[in-house]
Amino acid sequence: MTNATGLWGSNDAEPRCTDEVGWVEEISSLSWQHLILAHGGALWTTPGLCTRCSKKLGRTLPPTCVRSLIHKATKQIWVPCADMARELVGVANVTLLQIDAESHDVDVLREYPWSISRPWRVSFEAGFDRSKFEEAVSILRTQGYAHVSGSLGAPLSIWHRVDDSSEPLVHAAEENSK
Fold first, then answer.
1. Do 67 and 90 belong to one domain?
2. Tens-place pLDDT, residues 68-126
């Protein structure tokens, strides 16, 4: 959502008060359900938020102000996607695979072309449900990665490829230990 939607000042969809929720002002996802249900469904408990917003703006807002906002301000935009198998042909090394796909991180791991390129480090959001996290762990362990930090519910889970001693991170660690 963004103030570019033209909803500023609307009595039933007022984005200026979403700063109390924090992440709401600008969020995107691969699924509508994630926008609605993520973060404990904060958008669906709005009476207190609307009361505080009314005070802040000095006018009466209905108790559905933020509830209307998510529906009126959300835009569906089709974006081109890269075919990683095609994009990685001829790429010698990938140092970092950083995934932030708003609850679809395991889908990215599932579709990543491991046979073409195995990054030295993989980092993904670990705040999704247990079965998705366990699937992500299984994928990474199968591909030869060791867990560095971040368990289920953590902002990030970080994994390191353990089968390649030629990588820069290992050499840097060796130099620092001398």
1. no
2. 666 666 677 777 888 999 999 888 889 999 998 877 899 999 999 999 999 999 999 87
Global pTM reads 0.66
Are 99 and 160 in a shared domain? Answer: yes
Q: Does residue 165 share a domain with residue 97?
A: yes
Q: Is residue 16 part of a domain?
A: yes
d(CA 164, CA 92): 14
Residues 88 and 172 in one domain: yes
* Whole-angstrom distance, CA of residue 49 vs CA of residue 109: 37
**Higher confidence at residue 136 or residue 77?**
136
Q: Which residue blocks in 19-177 are alpha helix, DSSP H?
A: 32-41, 47-57, 65-73, 84-87, 105-111, 130-142, 168-177
The domain of 171 spans 84-177
Residue in 12, 19, 24 with CA at minimum distance from that of residue 74: 24
